[in-house]
Design brief:
This protein has 119 residues and is mainly alpha-helical. 74% of the residues lie in helices and 5% in strands.
Length: 119
């Protein structure tokens, strides 16, 4: 559970940075930002694996680049489900997914490897 919360906070940092850099991405307030990060974590845990599996041929064909499109779609789904979080257009979602992915990669590298399972 603590690992999920750390990942959500790192995702929130990425979402915040994306909102600062991109004009078409906006949050009503900080609570909405945190809720978006938590919802993104849940969607990435439950919906994204199915979407990745269904789009596997296209992902292989594009040498993995289509995963960026999948990430943008997951962000769009969060924006659809969460009032107060707006993304204007697919291009904005694509750039936001790239920013969140980079920030998440750096953040998780700083946090360290996965914790070993508890006995």
């Amino acid at each position: 559970m603590e690992r999920f919360l750390i990942r959500a906070l790192v995702a929130a940092a990425g979402l915040w940075l994306a909102a600062e850099w991109l004009d078409g991405l906006a949050f009503r307030d900080g609570t909405t930002l945190l809720m978006a990060a938590l919802l993104l974590g849940l969607i990435n845990a439950f919906v994204r694996p199915l979407v990745v599996l269904l789009t596997l041929p296209l992902t292989v064909l594009t040498v993995g680049l289509f995963l960026l499109v999948v990430n943008a779609l997951m962000l769009g789904l969060v924006a659809l489900l969460l009032p107060g979080f707006q993304i204007e257009g697919f291009g904005t979602a694509l750039l936001a997914a790239l920013i969140v992915g980079i920030v998440s990669g750096i953040g998780m590298a700083l946090v360290g490897p996965r914790l070993p399972p508890r006995p």
